[in-house]
Amino acid sequence: MPKSKLDRLLRVRTLQLGLVQADEARARDKAHAETTLHGRIVQLSQNVAPTVAPIGASALGAAAHFRERLHRSAEAAEGRLRAANAVAARAVEATREARRDQSAIEKLIARADAEAALKELREMEAMPPTRVIRHDPC
User: Fold this and answer.
1) Which residues contact 121 (CB under 8 A, 6 or more apart)?
2) What tens digit of pLDDT does each residue of 9-34 get?
3) Cβ(6)–Cβ(112) under 8 Å?
4) Which positions ≥6 away from 49 have C-beta within 8 Å?
5) 3, 111, 120 from 99: Cα distances, Å
6) pTM of this prediction?
């Protein structure tokens, strides 16, 4: 392949790698945010757990209602967390593939450079010898 075409491919693959790495970072951030949100919901639900102290029926009903809503939120957060982790795993795989593509192009460029250097050496070997006869002043 011509060198310019390989250089163009390398630039494209490098840009793609940067985009994929940015997607991976966003996916990791989203997974981290979902993890912290899930932890916060679990902590809130533990804070609303029933106590031994006597409380009124309306307060008990309100706490039960709040606990139920927190549990639904926790289940939804777990679903979002699983989805975010799946997206993060796909992003890691996409980054790995993009790196593999970029390194393949870099290897092709290195091979093309080595072949060009070898071709130049062969051309230099095939050149007729040029011997300059110099006569020094006697």
Assistant:
1) none
2) 889 999 999 999 999 999 999 999 99
3) yes
4) 67
5) 20, 18, 31
6) 0.67
